[in-house]
């Protein structure tokens, strides 16, 4: 894949890419910390340098309604970003760090809603510890070894996901859609599945793990 522009070891000014469409750019060890990337679109961009095995730094950046499509975000630092309405689609995001990220719009101290569209993306070994992603579109993702300790996914669409080496009882998955998902390690005895949507094949597998045979 040919890149049109290459940025190396750059610290960007806050409004450098605000609202822009960046296609086929390569960012090597770049610093987006504190940048306003509201409505910015990144398409076929590379944010991970395979030679140094380093990602870019987006700490405290504003990513409201920003989109990343067909990008490599592996090992990037997304800590404490404002990511309401973010779209990450068909990306590589192994090892991405979302700790402290907010996908939430606070209406009052007791009322809020979340918005995020993270789909068809490899989130293996990503850190989503303590994030709140309620009622979000999170389907067809790969969740291998993803850290979700203390996270809240209640009401989200997690259908079509591949879950392995995954700690189901460490987060809130109530009322989620898990249909079409590979739910390795999911145990009915240790995970609260209130309101969870499953297909019949998944239910059969889960019940069989309890030693119960389901006859058709």
TrEMBL record:
It comes from Erwinia sorbitola. It comes from the Bacteria. This is Qnr family pentapeptide repeat protein. Pfam families: Pentapeptide (PF00805).
């Amino acid at each position: 894949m040919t890149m049109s522009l290459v940025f190396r070891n750059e610290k960007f000014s806050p409004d450098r890419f605000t609202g822009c469409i960046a296609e086929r750019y390569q960012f090597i060890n770049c610093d987006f910390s504190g940048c306003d990337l509201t409505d910015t679109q990144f398409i076929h961009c590379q944010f991970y340098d395979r030679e140094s095995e380093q990602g870019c730094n987006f700490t405290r950046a504003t990513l409201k309604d920003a989109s990343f499509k067909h990008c490599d975000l592996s090992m990037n630092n997304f800590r404490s970003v404002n990511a309401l309405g973010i779209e990450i689609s068909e990306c590589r995001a192994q090892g991405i760090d979302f700790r402290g990220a907010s996908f939430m719009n606070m209406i009052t101290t007791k009322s809020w809603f979340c918005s995020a569209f993270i789909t068809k993306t490899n989130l293996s070994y990503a850190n989503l510890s303590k994030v709140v992603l309620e009622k979000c579109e999170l389907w067809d993702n790969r969740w291998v070894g993803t850290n979700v300790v203390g996270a809240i996914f209640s009401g989200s669409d997690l259908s079509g996901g591949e879950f392995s080496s995954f700690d189901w009882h460490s987060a809130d998955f109530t009322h989620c859609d898990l249909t079409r998902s590979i739910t390795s390690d999911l145990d009915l005895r240790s995970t609260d599945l209130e309101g969870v949507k499953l297909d019949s094949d998944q239910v059969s597998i889960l019940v069989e793990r309890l030693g119960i045979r389901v006859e058709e």
